[in-house]
Design brief:
The chain is α+β, with helices and mostly antiparallel strands. It has a single domain, classed as Hypothetical Cytosolic Protein, Chain: A, CATH 3.30.1230. Helices cover about 35% and strands about 25% of the residues. The chain has 2 helices and 5 strands, in the order βββββαα. It has a 3-stranded antiparallel beta sheet with strand order 4-3-5, with helices on one face. The two termini are about 20 Å apart. Bound molecules: zinc ion (ZN). Zinc ion (ZN) binds next to strand 5.
Length: about 90
């Protein structure tokens, strides 16, 4: 087992709660399109509690992506979360 090093703290864009990076989901928005972080560009974090609160979550996503396409975000988000669980 590897030793635990200092873990980076990040802030959830929805509730503003701080948590270690591993407990947050890293997302990004490119041209109004939501995706998991690709390693390039601006990214943001959401905590797992907010991921279950659709309304709050969508507000945060619309703010981050500067787009109002709620259905698109919601579908995409579910895809991203499901993918995360597989790996
Ligand atoms: Zn949150």
């Amino acid at each position: 087992m590897a030793k635990k090093f200092h873990e980076p703290i990040r802030t959830c864009v929805s509730c503003r709660k701080k948590d270690i990076q591993n407990n947050l989901v890293r997302l990004q928005c490119e041209n109004g399109d939501l995706s998991s972080f690709t390693g390039l560009g601006r990214s943001f974090y959401l905590c797992k509690i907010c991921l279950k609160e659709d309304k709050k979550l969508l507000k945060a996503l619309m703010r981050q992506c500067r787009s109002g396409e709620k259905d698109k975000f919601m579908n995409k988000l579910k895809e991203i979360i499901t993918d995360d669980r597989k790996s």
